[in-house]
Amino acid sequence: MTFITTILEKQIIMDRTWLFTLDRGSFEFQPGQFINLSTGPGNDRREFSIASPSQQKTLEVLITRQKDGALSPLLCDSPVGAKWTVEGPEGQFQLSPLERKSPVLMIATGSGISPFGSLIRSYPGLDYQILHGLPHFGRIKEWINFPAKRYTLCTSRSGDGDFSGRVTERLKQISLSSKAIYMLCGNSDMIFDSMAILQDRGIPRKNIKAEIYF
Q1: Is the same domain home to 49 and 122?
Q2: Is the pTM higher than 0.85?
Q3: 88: Cβ–Cβ under 8 A, 6 or more apart, which residues?
Q4: Which end of the chain is more exposed for a tag (fewer CB within 10 A), N or C?
Q5: What PROSITE patterns has UniProt attached to this entry (predicted)?
Q6: Are 170 and 176 in contact (CB under 8 A)?
Q7: Are residues 122 and 156 located together in one domain of the fold?
Q8: Which residue segment(s) compose the domain that 131 sits in?
Q9: What are the tens digits of pLDDT across the range 161-179?
Q10: What are 26-72's pLDDT values in tens digits?
């Protein structure tokens, strides 16, 4: 499906990362999927995970301004009321009905937390824990108001998070269950390192889902 959306709201919630709220119209998606965004038909486009729950009447996406990016500065500078082109949805980074009955550990870096924002709000009864890696403390907790017992902020360049260090360092310290589902979303280094840690500790590969953010 391709349609034109309007930016309804925008706010900065992490270092260089904006939360955009978009008009959804009749667009349908499954939690965990992504869309392609562009400033208009025929222009450069890029994939962004949907961050909003499936039952919400608007769409949310997190967009990080890349210093040398061809598209992200244009998107981040777009004012409320601007029009974007949306294509999608796409992707298989989802939880089946059976998997939603298991505990889920979600591991993210930066805006890789986007699909988790959709999943946990689409499935209110989900038994989840989040490990989220950021360089510094951000306003991300204000976005969803994560319960403290379910969200651990790992700050790698400051001591103002719940854990001082990378998410992979925290992952090495916590107990893991072979019956849980493990979802990884973020930069490739984190994903490859986390997969190695999980498999070294006996987690079956079929229990691990990954989506790389470039």
Answers
A1: no
A2: yes
A3: 1, 29, 33, 34, 35, 36
A4: C
A5: FAD_FR
A6: no
A7: yes
A8: 99-212
A9: 889 999 999 999 999 999 9
A10: 999 999 999 999 988 778 899 999 999 999 999 999 998 988 888 88
